[in-house]
Design goal:
mainly alpha, two-stranded antiparallel sheet
């Protein structure tokens, strides 16, 4: 295969060769870095600051009790993903798994849905900084125009970091995740302590439904409307996603079959517990739920009101760092997915997007592409009347589709999966599958509500673009031309990569699993 000044790699053209040179991704991620990827993407600070206002409007304070149910549902999904990641630890996660275990056409569809999700979720995350935190932190009037401009700059900064150095990106993310852990724990403790000391902490608020109506609160709703409590599940469904980003960097992780499943599960559990405690603290400190629901920055407003301007703003600054880290991880994950599909010659413009910069060791063109896609999506959503709701709704709907498709595939193929390299569901497999299936079916039904018209429009437009390119691929190559590398080869390479030197660095010179 011809190459130019940049280095190209292609699993499609040479499926049975492993990369033992700088042409592949370097295996430089350890246990904490893998956990930081999963934790940083999920980011309770991001999810709660983004969605709390909408859930307060639709479901009232009582809506926070949907959170623990969402955590259990997403944990079951994470366990299924862990079982798959332990068998096929290759960059591209669901795209790779479905391509190899079902067929390449369905795998491509899963990859395109994943790309659509990563493109919109980075915009949703970064828009949160500009619309719900910075106006309170810097005391200025937030508008659609300045939110758009600030978000565009934040996306640019994240893309530059990812393009410059993978190692630097992970160092920034690990630092930010540590800051988020310390900051969110400190913030939660302070809210409880100061609230109790000042007498502002009122746990009875947790059980009120206003501004949502009490009548029919727990109803499932109608054919085109979800009930108030059902809409509250968006809080957890939007926040507890992205844990699979650890699996998307499998080829850059040491001992991925063992490290990645644990990282995903640990991220969901820790975020679930800490997030619920934070939600209880914030909600119990609300003086007037109906009035707060009208605020554009409800969580930030409560924090500064309880802790005072100086302390509140210092902690909000830590939240900004956490959300920036979340966007950074999403950008990194998006570039790896585009690179993985381009390496297999399956993505528009794959010849350019599969290149690895010889000096930086990063997929520079893929990073630039993700940046441009994010800016286009931002331009499409930013001028809508409720841009944040539309963004986070689309970013909740798409992973639900990905998770449902992957879990269904696991159910069908679980008897024929390759041997695990380090993690198995064992006797818990059936209960986990049942919980994951029920949860995902219920979550997807929420999106029948007419409030999700704009997110569905985004999904349909992206799907239409993907369908055109898929038809082009099938006409040009046929299904046989999309065949993935042999599964046996993946297991063989894993066995070889798992052999480490005395200092714990993989013996294959950190080569990529092909």
């Amino acid at each position: 295969m011809a190459t130019d000044e940049s280095v190209e790699t292609s699993a499609a053209s040479e499926p049975h060769k492993e990369s033992t040179s700088p042409q592949g991704m370097r295996r430089e991620l350890g246990r904490y870095a893998s956990f930081a990827m999963a934790f940083g993407f999920v980011s309770i600070a991001t999810g709660i600051f983004t969605t709390y206002g909408s859930v307060l409007n639709s479901s009232g304070p009582r809506g926070i009790f949907a959170w623990p149910i969402s955590v259990i549902g997403q944990l079951s999904v994470a366990l299924v993903f862990g079982a798959l990641a332990a068998r096929i630890p290759v960059n591209g996660y669901a795209y790779q798994w479905v391509s190899r275990l079902v067929n390449p056409v369905w795998g491509w569809i899963m990859g395109w849905i994943s790309f659509s999700f990563l493109g919109v979720v980075v915009v949703a995350v970064d828009y949160t900084v500009a619309s719900t935190i910075l106006p309170e932190l810097l005391q200025y009037q937030g508008t659609q125009q300045n939110a758009w401009a600030i978000t565009a700059v934040v996306i640019l900064l994240q893309s530059v970091l990812v393009a410059m150095s993978t190692k630097l990106t992970h160092q920034v993310n690990k630092t930010a995740v540590t800051v988020q852990l310390v900051g969110m724990i400190t913030l939660t403790v302070l809210l409880f302590a100061v609230g109790a000391y000042t007498g502002k902490l009122d746990f009875s608020t947790l059980f009120t439904s206003a501004p949502a109506a009490e009548s029919g609160y727990y109803s499932l709703g109608s054919a085109d409307h979800a009930g108030p409590f059902a809409l509250a599940f968006l809080l957890g469904a939007f926040t507890i996603v992205g844990f699979e980003s650890a699996a998307n960097l499998a080829e850059e992780t040491r001992d991925p079959a063992r490290v990645i499943p644990k990282a995903m599960v640990q991220a969901v559990v820790s975020l679930g517990i800490l997030g619920f405690l934070f939600l209880i603290a914030i909600t119990a400190l609300i003086e007037d739920p109906a009035k707060l629901a009208e605020s554009g920055t409800p969580v930030a407003t409560v924090i500064t009101a309880v802790l005072g301007s100086a302390v509140g703003k210092a902690l909000l600054a830590l939240v900004v760092v956490s959300i920036f880290s979340c966007g950074l991880v999403i950008t990194l994950s998006g570039t790896r997915l585009v690179w993985a599909m381009s390496r297999d010659e399956r993505f528009p413009g794959w010849r350019a997007l599969r290149r690895i910069h010889p000096a930086r060791g990063t997929p520079l063109n893929a990073t630039l592409f993700i940046f441009l896609v994010a800016e286009v999506i931002l331009a499409g959503f930013a001028m809508t009347t409720d841009a944040l709701f539309s963004l986070f709704s689309a970013a909740t709907m798409l992973p639900a589709i990905i998770y449902a498709g992957t879990v269904f595939m696991y159910i069908v193929k679980r008897r024929t999966l390759p041997p695990t390299q380090g993690f198995s569901l064992g006797r818990w497999e059936i209960p986990v599958i049942v919980v994951a299936s029920v949860w995902l079916a219920y979550e997807l039904l929420i999106f029948r509500d007419t409030a999700f018209r704009d997110p569905w429009l985004y999904v349909l437009v992206l799907f239409a673009i993907g369908a055109v390119y898929l038809v082009f691929l099938l006409v040009k190559r046929g299904v046989a031309g999309l065949t993935m590398p042999d599964m046996v080869n993946v297991d063989r390479v894993l066995d070889e990569v798992d052999e480490t030197t005395a200092d714990g660095v993989p013996a294959q010179d950190r080569g990529a699993v092909r």
